[in-house]
Amino acid sequence: MPRLYESRKRILVTGGAGFLGSHLIDRLMAQGHEVICADNLFTGTKRNIEHLHNNPRFEFMRHDVCNPLKLEVDEIWNLACPASPVHYQYNPVLTTKTSVMGAMNLLGLAKRLRCPIFQASTSEVYGDPEVHPQREDYWGHVNPIGTRACYDEGKRCAETLFFDYHRQHGVKIKVARIFNTYGPRMHPRDGRVVSNFITQALSGEDLTIYGDGSQTRSFCYVDDLIGGFLKLMDAPESVTGPVNLGNPHEFTMIELADRVLNLTGAKVKVVHQPLPSDDPKQRRPDITLAREKLGWVPKVELPEGLRHTIDYFRALV
Ligand SMILES: NC(=O)c1ccc[n+]([C@@H]2O[C@H](COP(=O)([O-])OP(=O)(O)OC[C@H]3O[C@@H](n4cnc5c(N)ncnc54)[C@H](O)[C@@H]3O)[C@@H](O)[C@H]2O)c1
Questions:
Q1: Whose CA is nearest to atom 25 of ligand 1?
Q2: Is 41 left (phi over 0), alpha (psi -120 to 50) or beta?
């Protein structure tokens, strides 16, 4: 339902044509807000937001967050950044610039407008963790010169900037550390395990597992994650984060492959390839903070989320 005029906000979402950004915009629009989506379409696509084009409360602007932006808005969500290794390693210098300069430009805007700003940070700030599961007070184990560093260190520096703008300039910040998320509108060629398995199964190719498949990941369904974003933004100003948002339920890659094979009915094999460098062996969020401060827990079970995702990819393939 459209909001009453007084409670309607103008909201900037950077990276809004991407997977998570487009779902966030849908939820903000459903709440009756006006949304400006700024995206350079590096990994995002207009298809993710095309259903909004005739809506007078929606605007798209092609913009690179490495450049400053002059706008009047009530709230900023910074999601602009390629998120999967194939995309962020394509131009690693640009990836670091996007995280660091993007954060500086948008924090500058939030400072001038005195408005809250959300940062899509990542579980990758924990690197290849030595403690398990990861709590927000764990400082991480990141290789600063590895091929993933452009993303991991870029996001770590962005967090530093968020907290320094908060301490030094009183900017109202909200920092979420997002763990692996999946769902409709994921990029079909992002090289991430869920999209890989599903597209391979649907096109009758063998599923590729890197390493022996005993490494674990936790997967959060996109609707759950966006619910967590909104709760964090709505929480009192003192709740700045960083807060982990993800699903703590762990699966091995072998278990995930089995589920995808079951749900798609594909008659293909699983093949193994060497593990990429710096690939974390295990990653699982401790979501105690999100539960206590935001009253948030993910609800969608893996089979249900996979079904929605498979339906989306089936239509796409
Ligand atoms: N999906 C996940 O599992 C996950 C996990 C951790 C963190 N995140 C973070 O969430 C955010 C969104 O991720 P996603 O999965 O939707 O990825 P995505 O690639 O689908 O979306 C990122 C969007 O940012 C845009 N973009 C990239 N560089 C830009 C730039 N310089 N200027 C303007 N726009 C730019 C892309 O075109 C794309 O639309 C990212 O910041 C990512 O690091 C995602």
A1: 15
A2: left
Q: Which residue has the tokens 């948008």?
A: 106
How far lies 135's CA from each of 177, 249, 250, in Å?
A: 10, 15, 15
Q: What is the pLDDT of residues 213-233, one digit of tens each?
A: 998 888 999 999 999 999 999
* Ligand 1: centre distance to CA 127 (Å): 18
Indicate the pTM of the whole model.
0.95
Residue 246's Cβ-count burial label (10 Å; 0-12, 13-18, 19+) is buried
Residue 49: DSSP 8-state: T
- Residues flanking ligand 1, CB < 6 Å: 14-15, 17-21, 39-44, 64-66, 79-83, 98, 120, 122, 178, 180-181, 187
Measured CA to CA in angstroms, residue 317 lies from 51, 195, 311 at distances of 20, 12, 10
pLDDT of 3: 61
* pLDDT per position as a tens digit, 248-267: 998 899 999 999 999 999 99
Paired with 243 in beta bridges are 176
